[in-house]
Design brief:
The protein has helices spanning 17-27, 68-74, 88-97, and strands spanning 4-14, 34-38, 43-50, 53-60, 77-85, 108-109, 115-119, 129-133. By secondary structure, it is an alpha+beta fold. It has one domain: 2,3-Dihydroxybiphenyl 1,2-Dioxygenase, domain 1, CATH 3.10.180.10. Strand 2 (34-38) and strand 3 form a beta hairpin. Bound molecules: zinc ion.
Amino acid sequence: MTHITSLDHIAIATKNLTESLDFFEKKLGLICTHIEELPERGIRVAMIPIGDTRIELIEALREDSEVSSFLQKRGPGVHHLAFATENIDHDMKTLKNQNLNFTNDAAKPGAHGAQVGFIHPKSAGGLLVELCEHKQTENQ
Ligand code: ZN
């Protein structure tokens, strides 16, 4: 079994973060609470809370970012679903033992200081699935 607890966010790949934010904020009236650059992954992300979950907009900062090939192949749109887990190391190991493939071997840093792992779309019916564990409350 995994330690998945909730839908953490729905991620959307965009070619233009400013235009996407304009749609979600000015047209839909939602509010972006956080914008963060992840230079090691070549992306900039914007988080928009809605209900118990969030929308994560992802823009490429460079041509070889992890979202660039997705944008080239499939265009802008839903990029991945992310499930919050209470133990990402355990879940990655458990799922690998069930022959699911991950795009990263071990959990890596994501937005907000979370640890993240991505289940390969070939193991998830064509969908990219992220597991994320938020560590910030752990040592408090
Ligand atoms: Zn994500």
